[in-house]
């Protein structure tokens, strides 16, 4: 079982929250032989800032741009597609019966932006770099070794059976990078710092970067696949959601990636816009500090779980853009399912459970990420509702990184309740969401309830070995684990996030894909 | 012909009469009195006291002003009038606490610096200069960023920004007073420095301090609201006017009342303290006597 080392940076949380987005996420690449596009500029407003331009280390909101500059071996298709994956830099792939050996046939005649040829040696170097120093290096945990028997074949040998297609199509940590750029970055940490130096194969190159202001992408003439109808894309970095809305409706930009949820009604009334809705792989969860009395008592945690106004939280926190959560795994990804039990909002039951536990006059401290607008909206609802069963909650907004540091510290001094927006690095909610958030750990990372349960851990370990070979069995085992989780209630599950899809009528090509919900694939967009 | 005015002392005969004849002063006093009354009797005045304190009413979200909800409701369905009524409490409490603490810290330091002079004066004033070198709101933002955003951390941050102004004001006054004959006389009688400062210097500084403090309450109220607006002050569900303006900002084109009424409350409160401060300055200025 891999140990996820995902970061939830402040900026990443911000984007995730504000991702009331135009998510053009059908995937990238694909389809050679397109006719040359007319000279057009696409202006985009986005809150996506850049933590690093290093494609290997990238693990934050710069993914918005990276997905147009770099490519993985595979893209994951949206749920409901005929095929779960489609080729990117790999043309075909197959796995051994035990799913421990995976062979990828690579696309030929692909050139990196720096002129290097893409081949198996380059792919091997990219995977090894990601495994060694990647921001999402943990996704490669099952990998024993990777070999390049010829120029266009890549063979992965795994320590245990694992879904390599999912790993190869991960949102983070799976980009193919030019060997020349990798070598340069290894010797010089600042190689990618300017932003205008890259080592990708994607349809766009970064030609201008003004920190905090704008990123200009220009089409790559030597791109192997479908070139964009917009040869120039100017992304205006605009943290304020309302400003993005004004820019979009005022015609300053063609698209906006972070529109205010509160104003979707206005956007729906705009005759120039189409507004839809997309599922995402993000969800809002909370942790009870099980290391502290009386929250070490499951009855108290169950009582509090019954006192959460779930429907109102979706209405106010998500402005209606959310769906009921069934456990810790969002419905849009494996192994999410509605056969996981849920808590109902029942204050009488909550009070009875508290009485049964002999708890009264309970005071709790709840922290949330101050930069997260949805949490800011729904945290007072939790305080208000808990007060109705005699539980006094002190709400403490903190910058996410400060909140996380507090949570990772001594549980005796940490918060009582920790609110978190979470999303997996790739679409395996078993090895990511369930493991990261609730598997026992001596040193807390994302398991911020400090809960330890051997039966739960055992089920996760067993399920993980079946994910690649027998997904149904794996899902059944994960569901069993989730039933324990819901019953013992070390945390609570508020809602699965949905995003509005706001698409100007003059542009086509916008689609939803929860696996790349933070990305916009510019080469798929075209004027109507 | 010019003459040096005598040092002003606390309100004397005629001050109240001058205040009452001054229209803006009466308006300022009325606004401040209204603010104090609203803050004191918030639970009685608010049409929906529970909502004023933060309770949600999801079924009543985003309602426009009506006979039931005079100022409309916010995104959580709370009555905005009730929130504004309850918001008078933190507004008044924080601004008075900040100014009070700034006076408590700044005035003694200014007195010591001005009266004693020498190296002590240099040391105190250079420290004050360091704080004054930063724009007040910027310094407050830095302090809140370090302490974490909350109403009281914002208050601490504002005290840090504000005390040097009082130190500088009182230091200048003490410097001019220490050479006056009545202070020389006190020295000759063998009074200790601390007694002279307390009994003779401080009372003669009280009018300018009072005027400055009155005006500053409005300015601090605005600064605290600004910190809340940018997320560094009061946090939900505190009924803070700055926070309410910020919460309503995203709805401004569709639900104007969410920001407009709390904004108007800030405007009127600041106007009240500014008018009162101006009127006090005029009334306590001996040059105004007889006008």
Automatic annotation (TrEMBL), chain A:
This is Glutathione ABC transporter substrate-binding protein. One of its GO terms (biological process) is peptide transport. GO terms for cellular component: ATP-binding cassette (ABC) transporter complex; periplasmic space. Belongs to the bacterial solute-binding protein 5 family. CDD domains: PBP2_NikA_DppA_OppA_like_7. Pfam families: SBP_bac_5. Residues 1-26 form the signal peptide. Keywords: Signal, Transport. One of its GO terms (molecular function) is peptide transmembrane transporter activity. Residues 85-442 form the Solute-binding protein family domain. InterPro entries: Peptide/Ni-bd, SBP_5, SBP_5_dom. The lineage of its organism: Bacteria, Bacillati, Actinomycetota, Actinomycetes, Streptosporangiales.
